[in-house]
């Protein structure tokens, strides 16, 4: 009997299968945080988002703020099965979190992309899991640095549009089903520089930041870069000035007397007018427990405030037995 040769799958079929495998590796995440957790005031006592399976032993990558001060973590499958998990890492420097499922997930992990995409028409897909799961074709609008109003800065972030509503921990894939980044924020405008019309979208933290520290996160729970001074400030750039938006209760900044509305003009003697300058200036001396000198303007009067910084990890509530 003659054998009929099978036709090779088309490029479209290959990409479709790759994205199906990628979709299957995205799970819903449910988190209950420790009673009395500091982060509950801003992030909530109960949190929901997504996580992406990245290894054969059940390790999933997610947004770090979802698992910050977690008491219990549950991975939820598409079929509704609820599986216990544990937090492996919370990394301040990158913003990533790692959790490990404590039961088999029955899915293959996704590969981490090795070639960073360039802004342009290349088709990308953002995927979230959960009750309001989304699969959304998106465009990479920009790759550039990002400074958060909390104490966070990365030199490269991925800005995509249109916006994914359920962005927390969501996955960004290329056409080959490789993981490019993890969803962190929804933004009103992702375009670089001035623009006449706003373009809403999302910020994804690229896996380029994960690869060099993944082994460290798995073994130590955070990267060495996360061992750095923390003040407990939220700040914003407003009309070329840095203003304090919020002071975390009982934080070093709170103890030192910083107030909402204070204008920060210098840190450790260096003039600052942008968030990147402030945060990078703070970490220029990476010793976590040190005196940080801030020059501020309050009510038209300049003053110098000394803030005794601490290691953020020392301030976090932990689950029983951890």
Main attributes?
322 residues, mainly beta, 6-stranded antiparallel barrel, globular
Q: Can you characterise this structure?
A:
It is built from six helices and 20 strands. The protein is mainly beta and 322 residues long. The strands form four sheets. It has a six-stranded antiparallel beta barrel with strand order 1-2-3-6-5-4. The chain has a six-stranded antiparallel beta barrel with strand order 7-8-9-12-11-10. Strands 14, 15, 16, 17, 18 and 19 form a six-stranded antiparallel beta sheet that branches. The longest helix has 14 residues. The model has no long low-confidence stretch (mean pLDDT 93).
Uncertain spans, ≥5 residues at pLDDT below 50? none
Overall mean confidence score, pLDDT: 93
The rounded Rg comes to: 21 Å
Distance between the termini: 66 Å
| Number of E-state strands | 20
So how many helices?
A: 6
Strand order of the largest sheet: 1-2-3-6-5-4
Given the helix and strand composition, which structural class is it?
mainly beta
Reported for the largest beta sheet, the result is: 6 strands, antiparallel, barrel
- Listing every helix as H and every strand as E from the N terminus to the C terminus, the arrangement reads HEHEEHEEEEEEEEEHEEEHEEHEEE
Helix content: 10-25%
